[in-house]
Amino acid sequence: MNVLDSDIQYLPGVGPKRAALLKNELGADTFSDLIRIYPFRYIDRSSITRIADIRPDLAYVQVMARITKVVLYGPNSSVHDQSQPLRWPAVKRMSVMVADASGEMEMVFFKGIKWNYEKLRPGSVFIFFGKPSTFGDRINIVHPEVDPAPQNGQPNTISGTLTGVYNSTEKLKNSGITGKVMNKMMAAALGQCLPFIEETLPEYILRDRGLVPLRYALQNIHFPESQDALAKASYRLKFEELFFLQLSLLKQKYIRSRGEKGIPMPKVGKDFNDCFNALPYDLTGAQKRVIKEIRSDMMSGSQMNRLLQGDVGSGKTMVAVLSALIAVGNGCQACIMAPTEVLSQQHFANISKYLRPTGVQCALLTGSTGAAERRRIHTGLEDGSIQIIIGTHALIEDDVRFHRLGLAVIDEQHRFGVDQRSKLWAKNGDGVPPHVLVMTATPIPRTLAMTLYGDLDVSVIDEMPPGRKPVETMQIGQNHRLQLYSFMKKEISKGRQVFVVYPLIFESEKMDLKNLEQGYEEIVQAFPFPPYKVAIVHGQQTNEVKNFNMDAFAAGRANILVSTTVIEVGVDVPNASVMVIESAERFGLSQLHQLRGRVGRGSEKSYCILVKDNKISKESQKRLDLLCATEDGFELAEEDMKMRGPGDLEGTQQSGLPITLNIASIARDGVLLGEARRFAEAVLEKDPFLEDPMNGLLVKELRKDKYNIKDYSKIS
Ligand code: ADP
Ligand code: MG
Q1: Same domain, 624 and 479
Q2: Ligand 1 close to Cβ of residue 309 (< 6 A)
Q3: Are 145 and 180 in contact (CB under 8 A)?
Q4: What is the mean pLDDT of the segment spanning 469-478?
Q5: Which domain holds residue 339?
Q6: Ligand 1 center to residue 378 CA distance, Å?
Q7: 524-545 confidence digits (pLDDT tens)
Q8: How far is the CA of 22 from the centre of ligand 2 (A)?
Q9: Is 441 in the pocket of ligand 1 (CB under 6 A)?
Q10: Which of 75, 197, 539, 683 has the fewest Cβ atoms within 10 angstroms?
């Protein structure tokens, strides 16, 4: 058997008990698993700190000092009586006083006392390494690592100057797998494995990118010879990881675009032109560009799989309509799927207007569509007389069958699960999948999009329709509520409308509702009828009540809409110019941005007012500050990702990253990710199926389980 695949328990110093822990806690089953766990930081042990310079806030220090006194303490801090024989179990603590030329300090041991007592003889010099802490007014180090002082008086260089620190867990620490033990295990594993480690990147890539060989990289990521060696090792390993990730994603895209047949749509068609010519406005440059991209996909004969990103209000609906009309113009049907009933209705209302000049037949299908209408729609979809269907999940139910579905548009894609989306693929009897356009208003940082949707084509609407005024964003404390109300009154007197949004705060929906209803009561008192009218919308209402209240606000019959985040996506009320967000500190950055996007849609100056608690965390404050500083959704998403990491980014939790990255970070290594992707593209451009023997190593690496992410290519 291969050394690399040896069970971790056979590594010297491990054994079955530790092996079980390493497997459970770190997922390391074999020798080679272990050496692919890299330090998350390094301690520079080349420098010695003078005792007099030690402050409790220093991270780690290393002192070289002579032991002056050792005292053993029994229970309740009783000092061990030297005249009595030592009974080890009774010893609870050992205090070791040490001194260098600058001062004196204490090292404390609660564990391993016997062993250290024998080693730490007064008068001898050691190097102590650890994190200083304070005890009363004294500074000490608890459980320092202890190394003998070097003979020549120089710092210990045996273990190199940089020592790796590995992620650990409580369980690991408690069972004696300390940093030092971890380093020893790594050294043992590397010693055994390195001779058998094979290069994963072809020679020409190493040369071209100036990368160090894999063996060198692994050795130096664990035990760096120098800062420079560490940098080279880290660069090589990060590049490799990102490159293979992109290569695996892009390879699928290449294969699909050559293999997967799509419905060819050579024409634009009369309906497209009729709609286009009747538009009340000119398309923005970005809308035109994106429509061109979509059109050329739909013409190509291969299946389109395109992600359309565009900030709230950037005009994605129009793009969806024109794309649907291309399908119609080629004798096919189109469906537009939205995540909620309210959004579907709004889409239906807007889109019907756009379609009026064309005579294209359009219908709405949701959960609350009545039986008779539902039957009519089912028949119309099957015989092809309904050309565009708009709706919710109801569209993907099994009894919905199409005459010929040419395009599926999915709005706000992150609200649909992978399974639901893939159901759309099977809607055509002949097995030829419809073209798919996924639209999202959650700006995903470019780097993350490349990874999450690495095998999709991405279009971005990066330009807002003209005439949109910036939304003035400000933060106020709870104590400014009266000023807030008088400001709202002033805006209402000008004929504007106001959103007031409450977060989901409590675990239970009932509690959230209570919170919302209290807020509603307060607003109703401050804005009594007549003249004011306040509507309320939340998730617990029946669709009927919800729609009634929503409509009242949309039609201008209510001045204020109090709601939970149900209005987050899509809802379009151009006359609403004020967005008040209660307990704003509880929202994520992207969500705040989405909410703000509900205003600023009309020609009036708009405001977003963040009401925050008097005491909020630094993190929350930073989010609110950022939101006030910029309206660029991509910039905010980028910042959000830096603050919280890509895994927690709103809109991406469901999908997650396709593979776990060991060393590279999507948030921090964006530039390298771009390089890796371009390089992977270049490789595939020359050799799409990786058939050239020169790329043999790449094929071998891609066969590994972790790159088996085929499901991802079917996300839509
Ligand atoms: P979103 O991208 O958030 O779905 P919408 O498609 O709802 O945005 O568009 C937001 C608003 O902008 C709508 O009222 C729409 O009529 C308007 N709009 C879209 N495109 C343009 C344009 N090119 N010029 C002016 N207004 C536009
Ligand atoms: Mg929209």
Answers
A1: yes
A2: no
A3: yes
A4: 91
A5: 270-299+315-440
A6: 30
A7: 999 999 999 999 988 788 878 8
A8: 48
A9: yes
A10: 75
CA distance 301 to 320: 20
Contact 232, 212 (CB under 8 A): yes
| Mean pLDDT, residues 405-410 taken together | 94
* 487 lies in the same domain as 426: no
Residue 217 region by backbone torsions, left for phi larger than 0, else alpha for psi between -120 and 50, else beta: alpha
The predicted structure's pLDDT at residue 425: 67
Q: What ligand is nearest to the CA atom of residue 344?
A: 2
Q: Is 316 in the pocket of ligand 1 (CB under 6 A)?
A: yes
Instruction: Determine the distance separating the centroid of ligand 1 and the alpha carbon of 247, expressed in angstroms.
Output: 36
Among 600, 630, 660, the domain boundary falls at: 630
Q: Rounded to an integer, what is the distance from CA 284 to the centroid of its chain?
A: 30
Query: What would the two tokens of residue 26 be?
Result: 């770190």
Is residue 712's pLDDT more than 80?
no
d(CA 657, CA 676): 17
* Ion ligand 2: residue ranges with CB closer than 5 A: 570
206 residue type, one letter: L
pLDDT score recorded for residue 651: 41
Strand ordering across the sheet containing 145-148: 132-135, 138-142, 103-109, 93-100, 61-73, 125-130, 145-148
Q: 454 C-alpha to center of ligand 1: Å?
A: 28
Q: Are 559 and 535 in contact (CB under 8 A)?
A: no
Q: Which residues contact 680 (CB under 8 A, 6 or more apart)?
A: 243, 246, 247, 250
Tell me which ligand sits closest to the C-alpha of residue 312.
1
Which ligand 1 atom sits nearest the alpha carbon of residue 467?
25
Domain shared by 618 and 547, yes or no = yes
Over residues 325-345, the mean pLDDT reads: 92
Helix (H, G, I), strand (E, B) or coil at 640: helix
- 315 ligand 1 Cβ < 6 A: yes
Tokens of 424: 């759309």
| Residues 418 and 484 grouped into a single domain | no
Helix %, strand %, coil % of the chain (to 5) = 45, 20, 35
Query: 498 and 412, same structural domain?
Result: no
Residue of 317, 352, 353 to mutate, ligand 1, most atoms within 8 A of C-beta: 317
Are 259 and 317 spatial neighbours (Cβ–Cβ below 8 Å)?
no
> Cα(313) to centroid of ligand 1, in Å?
5
Query: Which of 198, 194, 299 lies closest to 698, judged by CA?
Result: 198
* Cα torsion 339, 343, 349, 354: sign: negative
Return the ∠ at Cα 452 (arms to 292 and 682), rounded to 5°: 70
0.85 surpassed by pTM:
no
The residue contributing the CA closest to ligand 1 atom 26 is 465
Whether the Cβ atoms of residue 534 and residue 553 lie closer than 8 Å to each other: no
User: For ligand 1, atom 21, which residue shows the shortest CA distance?
Assistant: 465
Return the best residue to mutate from 323, 459, 572, 598 for the ligand 1 pocket (most ligand atoms within 8 A of CB): 572
276-280: long-range contacts (C-beta < 8 A, 24 or more apart)? 276/322, 277/357, 278/356, 278/357, 279/318, 279/354
| DSSP alpha helix (H) spans, 330-389 | 341-355, 371-383
Run of H or E including 675: helix 670-686
Ligand 1: residue of 314, 343, 344 to mutate (most ligand atoms within 8 A of CB) is 314
Given a cut of 50, is residue 223 above it in pLDDT? yes
In the sheet with 362-365, reading across from the earlier edge strand, the strands are: 362-365, 388-391, 333-337, 405-411, 435-440, 305-310, 457-461
Instruction: For ligand 1, say whether the CB of 343 is within 6 Å of any of its atoms.
Output: no
Where is the domain boundary, 572, 606, 630? Answer: 630
Joined tokens for residue 380: 């119309």
Residue 294 CA to residue 487 CA, distance in Å, equals 45
Helix/strand/coil for 335: strand
Neighbours of 291 (CB within 10 A): 20
